Amino acid sequence: xxxxxxxxxxxATLTIGLAAxxxxxxxxxxxxxxxxxxxxxxxxxxxxxxxxxLLEAGEFELALRSFSRAALANGxxxxxxxxxxxxxxxxxxxxxxxERLLRRASLRDDAYAEIWNNLGVVLxxxxxxxxxxxxxxxxxxxxxxxxxxxxxxxxxxxxxTENSAYTDPKNNKYKLVRRGGSDYQISATS
Length: 190
Known about the structure:
Layout: H1 2-21, H2 47-56, H3 60-74, H4 79-91, H5 95-106, H6 113-125, H7 129-142, H8 148-162, E1 173-177, E2 183-187
Antiparallel strand pairs: 1-2
């Protein structure tokens, strides 16, 4: 009989406690501390832009997801999305996959100099210096020599081919370039 007497008090305590946990609880904040809801009327940010921002932040797995969503939203892949996939894979250390994707991107009609540059970076990472020089030259030509990063990568590749004894892994720094002015720096690991 004694346990029945405590049940209503326990139920009232639980109800008050749970009400305090909700956003509209006992003393809900009026200053907007809680996150706003999602505005479904606004247009979403382009997945390619989000992917590039995630690449800049070093969030390569999330960038892959963002580029995948962009491919679905755009009805397929273009050179920029393929390059985004390749760059994210390069950041994750998946050099074979990065090379395959960047080669596909470079064969597209809408390929641009930065795609060729990033392919050259992958080739340099894999030790394919002679082919990387040719790829950097193509990137340099497409860019009309305006990108300092592409020029630096070409000069480094040329120096490495001229002096094959140049194998100091501490000096193997290549710059990944993205369309729109952002650049990424990936250091070779040995």
